[in-house]
Design brief:
Helix content is about 75%, strand content about 0%. By secondary structure, it is an all-alpha fold. The protein has a domain at about 50-290.
């Protein structure tokens, strides 16, 4: 029994030692990479800034606000489709079908549109109020996150009402872009790489424009470009994940767990998207802070002086001549001359 305990203890000690050695090597490698490569140092500083600001909690707050915004957004879209259906009853279903969405979504939109036609006078003011309320919540939390990232005081967002409706316009534009992308992908029958690249550029431009209206210190718009690229590329990657993987997961979760599974899958996707928004603010603030750092103080160049038979090395700010001179002054009797004989003739 004792030998078995000793073997287990020895194995645990060896495993712990191996893990500690691996961690030490990884730390040393990371430290060397941070000293050698500026991009690695920027990445580590961005992570540390995000960790200090509790970025995962901030992303959770954004995801929750976005999830709550989906209801007024869907209500507003259904109201718009109801208005379109007033001119052509088949047009809303045709638009949704051409966007490449599934039959379930098409049927749901057709049913909701038919119902919304009968109560547009109620849905229009209700949609406007819901857009203002939900959009203001999203704007406030995104505004606060950028203020925290840039080290500014968290103040009230200016022109919240106009910003809320601008958010709705951006959301509708993004949905339109996604619909066009789906249509191009369906018509081309290929991977749609050109459409994906064009969509990424649209995302980058949209977030760059939005970042200029959010707290960013005294940084110019060019300093906000890295975060915009991060959001654009990341959002397009999330879109591809949602198209080829998450859509199937949502359908499966809906069949297995009902509405709760669908909500969980959607909020997981929104959390990943929120991490991109928080990370973009942290990245921009970190890179701008690194650019503003004063250069490392360099030692003054050495100036050599030769005067009165003395060669001086180092510079002008010398402490004592005896400490900084290569040749010291000759003492009496060491230069070949006699010492003066005081008191003798």
């Amino acid at each position: 029994m004792g030998s078995r305990t000793a073997r287990i203890s020895g194995t645990a000690t060896r495993v712990r030692t191996r893990v500690e050695d691996t961690a030490s090597k990884a730390t040393a490698t990371a430290t060397a990479a941070r000293r050698r490569y500026q991009h690695v140092e920027t990445a580590f500083q961005t992570y540390e800034r995000d960790k200090r600001a509790v970025g995962n909690v901030l992303a959770g707050a954004v995801a929750f606000r976005l999830f709550m915004y989906l209801l007024p957004l869907a209500l507003a879209v259904i109201t718009l489709l109801g208005i379109i259906a007033g001119f052509d009853p088949k047009e809303p279903a045709r638009l949704v079908h051409n966007s490449g969405l599934g039959k379930t979504v098409v049927d749901s939109v057709a049913t909701a549109t038919a119902a919304s036609k009968k109560s547009l006078w109620v849905l229009v003011p209700l949609s406007l109020y819901a857009l203002y309320s939900g959009g203001s919540g999203v704007i406030k939390v995104v505004y606060a996150i950028h203020a925290v990232a840039w080290g500014q005081p968290v103040t009230k967002a200016r022109r919240a009402a106009s910003a809320a409706f601008a958010l709705f316009g951006v959301a509708v534009a993004i949905l339109a872009v996604l619909a066009v992308l789906q249509w191009i992908h369906k018509q081309s029958g290929g991977l749609g790489l050109g459409a994906a690249l064009a969509t990424t550029v649209v995302y980058v431009a949209a977030w760059l424009l939005a970042s200029r209206h959010l707290p960013h210190g005294d940084a110019p718009w060019r300093a906000l470009l890295p975060g915009a690229v991060l959001v654009g590329v990341g959002f397009e990657a999330l879109h591809l994940v949602g198209e080829f993987y998450l859509g199937k997961q949502i359908s499966s979760a809906s069949e297995t767990y009902g509405a709760l599974g669908t909500a969980a899958a959607i909020i997981a996707w929104l959390y990943l998207f929120s991490r991109l928004l928080v990370g973009s603010a942290m990245l921009n603030a970190t890179m701008w802070e690194r650019r503003q750092e004063p250069p490392a103080a360099s030692e003054p160049p050495a100036r050599h002086h030769f005067a009165n038979g003395v060669l001086t090395l180092g510079g002008e700010a010398l402490t004592t001549a005896g400490d900084q001179t290569l040749v010291s002054e000759a003492r009496a009797g060491e230069d070949g001359h006699r010492r003066p004989q005081s008191g003798r003739r």
